[in-house]
Amino acid sequence: MEIVVTAFDPAEADSSALARSPSWVAEAPAILRHHLKLPPEKVAEAASILAQDGWELREQGPDGEFALAHALRVQTLDALHCAQERSRMAGLAQRLGGDSLGWDALQPSGAST
Questions:
Q1: Which end of the chain is more exposed for a tag (fewer CB within 10 A), N or C?
Q2: In which residue ranges of the chain is pLDDT below 70?
Q3: Three-state secondary structure along the chain?
Q4: Is residue 113 part of a domain?
C-alpha cells in the first residue's frame, strides 16, 4: 500500500487534493485514513461512535496530553464523500475535546496498471 492522496490543509478543497494526486485511481477502493488527536480517555468513546458507520479507530501513540489515532475505512474516494467525512471527523474530534488533523488515502502500489 502507498499513500496516494494527502489532505492536511484545511483551506484546500478535497476535490483539489484528489485532483493533484497522479497516483490516485478513482475507480479503485482505497483506505481513507483520518488523523485524529483525542484526549486519551475519549478514544474508546470515539471508537464506539465511529464503529457504527464501519470505521475502525487505531490508536497510534501519545502526543503530549493527547492520543494520536487513525480512523480507517475502505471506500471508493470522491470529493463529496471525502468532504463529508472530513467535516464529520472534525465535528467528532471537537465534541470530544480533540482535533482532526487531516486525512490521507492508501491504495495498492501500481493500482493503475
A1: C
A2: 110-113
A3: CEEEEEECCCCCCHHHHHHCCCCCCCCCEEEEEEEEEECHHHHHHHHHHHHCCCCEEEEEEEECCEEEEEEEEEEECCHHHHHHHHHHHHHHHHHCCCEEEEEEEEECCCCCC
A4: no
- Structural domain including 76 reads 2-21+28-107
The reported pLDDT for the residue numbered 113 is 43
Number of separate domains in the chain: 1
Q: Is 57 exposed, middle or buried (0-12, 13-18, 19+ CB in 10 A)?
A: buried
> Is residue 37 included in any domain, yes or no?
yes
Q: Report the 10 Å Cβ neighbour count for 69.
A: 25
Q: Residue 40: which CATH number?
A: 3.30.70.970
As a whole number of angstroms, the distance between CA 112 and CA 86 comes to 25
pLDDT of residue 110: 66
